UniProtKB/TrEMBL annotation:
Family: Belongs to the DoxX family.
Gene source species: Ktedonosporobacter rubrisoli
Transmembrane segments: 63-90, 110-129, 135-161
Protein name per the record: DoxX family membrane protein
Membrane-related topology note: Multi-pass membrane protein
Length: 171
């Protein structure tokens, strides 16, 4: 086993489990999170309608995407779910604050988004359920189509939230 294989396994586990935990904070209030109701209220305040749908989509994307990534199961789908959540986080919640996270910027979600692209490009490695179960998805094609779908869905969310946010009436 090469050091690169071990490194990619550690990267996959760290990113996957941390994102799954982040999703569990949003959905269930675990690990000190505020939970689904609070997230729905935040998204409603940002103009997302229906807020519960968008909260569920984001929370499940992080939780399920993180678990799939950590397990190395259906590799491109986990990466797409994380990509979608992080892209929307960058575009809607962090972009205006600039790059650095110290100012609430998009530094952290951009790093996670980039890592998901790298993991998708690598595909399932040893110590993945895809390898164990002989699942051979066309990783780059699935990832590419999934990212396209994620960008369309995220764009719809951005348009909806701009049209119905309290700030949109101030123009």
């Amino acid at each position: 086993m090469s050091s690169a294989t071990v490194g990619f396994l550690l990267l996959r586990l760290a990113v996957g489990l941390l994102l799954a935990g982040h999703g569990a904070q949003k959905l269930f209030g675990w690990f000190g999170g505020d939970g689904f109701t609070s997230l729905s209220k935040v998204l409603e305040g940002q103009g997302f309608k229906p807020a519960g749908f968008w909260a569920l989509l984001g929370g499940v994307g992080e939780l399920l995407g993180g678990l799939l990534t950590a397990l190395g199961l259906l590799v491109p789908l986990g990466e797409v779910a994380i990509f979608a959540a992080m892209f929307l986080a960058v575009a809607k919640f962090h972009w205006k604050q600039g790059l650095w996270s110290v100012n609430g910027g998009y530094e952290y979600p951009l790093v996670i988004l980039t890592i998901t692209i790298v993991l998708a490009c690598i595909g399932p490695e040893v110590f993945s359920l895809d390898q164990l179960l002989h699942i051979n998805l066309p990783v780059l094609q699935c990832f590419g189509l999934g990212v396209l779908a994620a960008l369309i869905i995220d764009s719809i969310g951005l348009i909806i939230s701009r049209q119905s946010s309290p700030e949109s009436g101030k123009r």
